[in-house]
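Here is the promised in-class demo. Please do not try to memorize the tokens; focus on the logic of going from shape to residues.
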């Protein structure tokens, strides 16, 4: 029996996921594989490196730093979340990511990106965490219109959530029999068509397959939710989701809001701890 952890994205809604992860790590809940999408990848890699508290710590420290996330960063660099600062300066210098612990932990870790030339998901398995590997994390979390295209090994990549927002099916097909799925939207959520489709069609007109994936994203997402619900009903998945819509947007500079969402994640996981332990035997 192999156990997996599936982490949805959602930009700063991922602070909920950080709270969940810290409770799981504190209770030594182990997995054979982890897959993260967008913020789920950017924050989820700390599970493999076993760095409890790191996500909320550096978000509180840098959330008001324009280099971390700001309109000014978008204007100057093309990235709302500063590429060099977020994915290299912070983990290498300011709040060091434990790449040795990450490498030595045998748990498999995957990040999901979208190839904009095909519109399809790309699943990258990590063996290490260095400068080039961190670019895969950046690609997974690079939202359309708010980030530059990330070029890796001849591929043009953006946000994994466009092509596979909740990669439970990917995990099941790769031999992970039972999976805990951490969502960042409450149960019953139904995704609607994006209001940014007009801009996306204009900006990415050279990439029709990517535009098509963006147009159909809400259908893909809702179908994946149905898949998750079916897996949970059949005992293959356990869902951890916010009790209600999280009081946070894609961007957040308020410390109290970040802490509130983090605490909601912690409480949700703590309240489900017996169920989690029974699921992960």
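The designed amino acids, position by position:
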């Amino acid at each position: 029996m192999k156990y997996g952890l599936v982490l949805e994205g959602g930009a700063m809604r991922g602070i909920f996921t950080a709270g969940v992860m810290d409770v799981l790590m504190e209770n030594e809940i182990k997995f054979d594989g982890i897959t993260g999408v967008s913020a789920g990848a950017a924050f989820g890699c700390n599970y493999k490196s076993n760095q409890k508290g790191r996500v909320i710590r550096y978000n509180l420290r840098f959330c008001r730093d324009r280099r971390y996330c700001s309109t000014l960063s978008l204007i100057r660099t093309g990235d709302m979340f500063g590429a060099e600062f977020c994915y290299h300066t912070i983990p290498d210098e300011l709040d060091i990511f434990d790449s040795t612990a990450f490498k030595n932990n045998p748990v498999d870790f995957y990040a999901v990106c979208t190839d904009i030339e095909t519109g399809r998901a790309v699943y990258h398995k990590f063996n290490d965490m260095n400068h080039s590997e961190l670019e895969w994390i950046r690609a997974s979390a690079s939202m359309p219109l708010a980030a530059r295209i990330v070029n890796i090994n001849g591929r043009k990549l953006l946000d994994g959530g466009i092509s596979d927002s909740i990669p439970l099916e990917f995990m099941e097909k790769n031999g992970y029999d039972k999976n805990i799925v951490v969502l960042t939207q409450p149960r019953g959520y139904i995704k609607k068509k994006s209001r940014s489709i007009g801009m996306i069609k204009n900006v990415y007109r050279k990439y029709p397959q990517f535009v098509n994936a963006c147009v159909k994203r809400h259908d893909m997402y809702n179908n994946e939710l149905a898949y998750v619900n079916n897996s949970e009903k059949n005992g293959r998945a356990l869902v951890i989701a916010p009790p209600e819509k999280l009081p946070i947007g894609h961007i957040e500079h308020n410390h109290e809001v970040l802490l509130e969402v983090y605490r909601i994640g912690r409480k949700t996981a703590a309240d489900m701890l017996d169920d989690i332990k029974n699921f992960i035997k």
